[in-house]
Design goal:
Elements: E1 3-8, H1 16-26, E2 30-38, E3 59-68, H2 77-83, E4 86-91, H3 94-102, E5 108-110, H4 123-131, E6 135-139, H5 141-144, H6 149-166, E7 171-174, H7 186-196, H8 200-207, H9 209-223, E8 224-225, E9 229-230, H10 240-255, H11 257-273, H12 286-307
Parallel strand pairs: 1-2, 2-3, 3-4, 4-5, 5-6, 6-7
Antiparallel strand pairs: 8-9
């Protein structure tokens, strides 16, 4: 299963069906359609409607990309997890990144690595996010499209420093592709991750296992309380007729049991009346043969003494 958790989406975009069909042809199974908001959150947030005729092999998710510049700016992140399948933060400075890694509730921290960042990645700060179940996202789309050589150079350098700071753990790779021509096949993405410094195994986990963990943890946050208490049974009332039939079922079996017991007793009596088959004699051991020979010699000596 291959995941692409960042595909920009707008209901008015006519290229969205072509992009989704191309993703299905490339072998992706789960795609998150992202909606970006910068600044203050509006009063009511609802995800845009999904495409009407997506490919049957694709599982579509809704995602919100929230640009974060001031940590005290957005205080309703817990409510967003109920409206969207995934909530991603894009911090623009080191203070916002530190707050997102340590205290803010989100599923993904997505960084714009195509620009020159004014700060360095620190292991202690990023490991705090990974320990909380938050994954760090690298988007290869801005470095592949015609954004210029600077964007490609910044993407390679920032991705390498991010992988070095995280020790290659807790990283997912997404496309953030505006058009179908910017998409790459899963194994091409793994090769890109190898260029940035990830091993082939970690590169495959970045678009398979780690991305699957993001969706699973986000679902737990929506359907349970802090991922601990979950609704297993809805509390539907059990039909009384079904319970009565289940209670009466053993009685019917008991009524039919005497005949079966009588047949069993007849079979047992017949088996007892029949003579048991003779078991073949076991071969004598050497010790037993010597004991019998000695006994025969002693008896022959005793008989000879009586004759004399």
């Amino acid at each position: 299963m291959f995941f692409d958790l960042n595909v920009p989406y707008s209901p008015d975009d006519s290229d969205v069906p072509h992009t989704l069909n191309f993703l299905a042809e490339l072998g992706y199974t789960t795609v998150a359609l992202s909606h970006t908001i910068s600044g203050k959150l509006p009063s009511s947030l609802t995800p845009p409607p999904l495409p009407s005729n997506p490919p049957k092999s694709l599982q579509l998710l809704t995602r919100l990309n929230l640009t974060l510049s001031d940590p005290a700016q957005n205080q309703r992140l817990a409510n967003l997890t109920q409206a969207y399948d995934l909530v991603a933060l894009r911090p623009t400075n080191e203070k916002a990144l530190l707050n997102a890694c340590t205290s803010l509730e989100c599923d993904v921290i997505s960084l714009d690595l195509s620009v020159r960042l004014p700060y360095h990645f620190k292991f202690k700060m990023l490991s705090a996010a990974i320990s909380r179940g938050i994954r760090l996202e690298i988007c290869y789309g801005p470095g592949i499209t015609g954004s210029g050589l600077d964007a490609r150079r910044n993407l390679i350098g920032n991705a390498a420093s991010l992988i070095r700071a995280t020790r290659g753990r807790g990283i997912i790779v997404s496309s953030e592709a505006q058009r179908a021509l910017s998409l790459r096949a899963p194994w091409d993405v793994i090769n890109l991750a190898c260029v940035w410094g990830l091993s082939q195994e970690r590169g495959k986990e970045a678009i398979c296992e780690e991305a699957r963990k993001v969706t699973a943890l986000a679902k737990l946050k929506r359907t349970s309380w802090r991922g601990i208490v979950d609704i297993v049974h809805g509390g539907e009332s059990v039909n009384r007729e079904q319970t009565t039939t289940k209670k009466n079922a053993p009685a019917k079996e008991d009524t039919a049991s005497p005949s079966s017991n009588a047949a069993d007793t007849l079979k047992r009596k017949a088996s007892l009346g029949s003579e048991p088959a003779e078991e073949p004699e076991k071969a004598l051991s050497k010790r037993e043969m010597k004991r019998r020979a000695k006994k025969a010699r002693l008896e022959s000596r005793g008989a000879h003494a009586v004759d004399t």
